[in-house]
Amino acid sequence: MICKKYIYFLTTLVMWISTCCKSKTNNSLSGRDFYEIMESGEIKALTLSGSMSYFIYKGAEMGYQYELIKNFADANNLRLKIIIANNETELREMLETGKGDIIACNFPVTNEGKEKFLYCGEESINEQVLVQRSNKGDTLLNDIPDLIGKNIWVIHDTKYYSRLLNLNNESGGGINIHSIDKDTVSVEDLIEMVANGEIPYTVSDLDLAKLNKTYYSNINIALKISHPQRSSWMVDKRSPKLAENVNEWFKNNSNTTKYRAIIKRYFEMSKLPGDAPAPIISNKAISVHDKYFKQYAPKIPWDWRLLASIAYQESKFYVDKVSWAGATGLMGIMPKTAETFNMELDRLIDPESSVETATKLIKRLNKHFSSIENEEERIKFILASYNGGLGHVTDAQALAEKYGKDPHVWEDNVLECLKLKKLPEYYNDPVCKSGYFRGTESIAYVKAVMERWKYYQEKVEE
After folding, report:
1. How close are the terminal C-alpha atoms of the chain, in Å?
2. How many Cα atoms within 13 Å fall on the side-chain side of residue 64?
3. Where are the domains of the chain?
4. pTM (whole model) above 0.90
5. For 96-137, how does the pLDDT look when each residue is reduced to its tens digit (9 = 90+)?
6. Per CATH, which fold does 128-227 belong to?
7. Which class would CATH give 290-459?
8. Following DSSP, what letter does each residue of 273-316 receive, concatenated?
9. Alpha helix ranges (H) inside 41-143
């Protein structure tokens, strides 16, 4: 009798331990709820690389969705850990297996998703829009029937392509749909091509189109061609308190100055460098700040007129200029860069401090690219890194080496690979460490600074 009771006790104990272990294992593969996150002191946010979600620019983490989740983390005194997935499918899998606490980028709201996840945060209503150029003299399309007979370029096998096919069927045909391989261009590339007049029309989500309108002021995005699609952030169903706290944070912050500033930074502030001419005072002077360029240029050593060219590109010589990304002062110094070189943030608008810090950064970049023997060639790499961040340029060099190009030559080599970092196939490549990048901006920056430098060399005495 005692023996049977003992056996029963042991059996029950083993079953209890097994159940606990199984439960513990299951919990490790599921989302943590808010109290567990608070206890750990860290929230793990899953997201995608991209201009709407997360990217690194001038060495700083950025992105509309990133700034929102960062503000939520800060409000709760939590460290933020960003985990990048390659695509939406991987995002869901990572959330299901507990590799992250929350998907912090807009995810489509579907009935299937509601069975496994909780949607939370600000609900975004997105639509597909026609992107068309609106220069003086351009005739704008104002209604869907206007698409008949028009040439519209989209990426093959995407929702944009499918939408155009449906519209074409509904209208009885006549829309000229041109599809492009997704491995060669991005939606943002097509928007740029519309702005530059290379193609007449493309299709984009409204939020992405609004963001790109800050880069290309001559595009029109008013014509909506699809039904609204709801999307928001997502957590595991076993994390209801996390969803509740995220919802509460958005409710309390959606009208704050800080929240409004984030929206303005990404969807309203112009990202255009401006096309004003590069004036000079005389054949001996470029600006009132020349003394600083001449004082610090020998420390690199560079031609002082090249520093002046950078300053003009960054600020048009206005010492209190602040870019959409936070680059401040005469030389466009980022706060993170200032901290790296022990520059006090209240000195960002001081012209001498700005030039001094810029030369320290250039000196560091010059050392990094010391294997590039041709000095003018090396300057192009330094300028691209000064503008967009060293990580993206070294990524482009790695891609160049992988695809048989010269990693020490800018034109037709690293420049072309920097362009590719808009495409998931390339920025998700294991040789790339810094993710998505809008390389065309840095390419234009290098060209503009170099051309202005040549102009200064011709017009202004050394």
Report:
1. 105
2. 21
3. 31-122+233-267, 128-227, 290-459
4. no
5. 999 999 999 998 899 998 999 999 998 899 999 999 999 999
6. D-Maltodextrin-Binding Protein; domain 2 (3.40.190)
7. mainly alpha
8. --------SBTTBS-TTHHHHHHHGGGTT--HHHHHHHHHHHHT
9. 64-75, 88-96, 111-116
